[in-house]
Amino acid sequence: MQAYRFSTRISEKGIITLPFESALLDREVEIIVIPKNGKATIPEGYMTLEEFRSESKASLTNILNEYGIH
Questions:
Q1: Is CB count within 10 Å lower at the N or C end of the chain?
Q2: Which residues does residue 10 pair with via DSSP β-bridges, in sequence order?
Q3: Three-point CA angle 28, 33, 35, nearest 5°
Q4: Does 70 score more than 80 pLDDT?
Q5: What is the separation, in whole angstroms, between the first and last Cα of the chain?
Q6: Cα–Cα dist 47/22, whole Å
Q7: Whole-model pTM?
Q8: In 11-48, where does DSSP find H-type helix?
C-alpha cells in the first residue's frame, strides 16, 4: 500500500485542502491528523486518554466490588 504525506492547514471552517494526486481520485482513503507544534487542545466536555483510563478503571472497580468480584 502506497502512503502519501501532505502538510496542510485546516481552515477556520474545518476545511482541509490536499494537493492534487491523481492516484487518489475516486478512492476511499483513511486520513490521520497529527497537529504540529505542540499538543492538541482537548475540546470542552471531552477527556484526555489518561483521564478516560482512570475514570473507566475506577468505574469498573466499583462495579466489580458491587457484585463481590475481586
A1: N
A2: 16
A3: 165
A4: no
A5: 46
A6: 39
A7: 0.40
A8: none
